[in-house]
Amino acid sequence: YAMLLSLIFLIVLVAAVVGFVFRHEIKTNFESNLNLALRDYNVTADRHSEAVDTIQRTLHCCGVQNYSDWERTEYFTQRGIPRSCCKSQNDCSEEDLKDPSKAKLKVFVDGCFFLVTSTMESKMSVVAGIAFGIACFQLVGIILACCLSQYITNNQYEMV
């Protein structure tokens, strides 16, 4: 049992170190995937499009760097900026969303990449604290399992 807990502890430790070391690559990868999701955004509501809509609605943002990122997409030529960018769903017509100058007043102008990464970085201290707490419990479990094993081993020889 102690060996199993030690293995899990080492896997979590390696994952944390790799995540910390490669955090810049993770950001770059996220940005390129967000750009791809915008480029392939469509009305059929596939899971990538739903994810983009959810991010934009939840974080009150639009596009990757800003709302004008949508102007370079195929979706914009057909329908304009998506409704998930609208500040108010009732005050957002399709004509407004097709005109970038009108859309600027109706949609969130901040990009999602900065908001997502800053939200993740602000929550990292909570995640690190929880991970540290779990690691402490794992270490206590490893120590207690070793003590129990030692106790069982010592008592077997005394019984005879």
From TrEMBL:
Residue ranges crossing the lipid bilayer per the database entry: 126-152
Matches recorded under InterPro entries: Tetraspanin/Peripherin, Tetraspanin_EC2_sf, TSN6/7_LEL
Keyword field: Glycoprotein, Membrane, Signal, Transmembrane, Transmembrane helix
Keyword Ubl conjugation (UniProt): no
Function as written in the Swiss-Prot or TrEMBL entry: May be involved in cell proliferation and cell motility.
CDD domains from the UniProt entry: TM4SF2_6_like_LEL
Keyword Mitochondrion: no
Coiled coil regions, renumbered to chain: none
Membrane topology summary: Multi-pass membrane protein
Residues in the signal sequence: 1-19
This protein's name: Tetraspanin-7
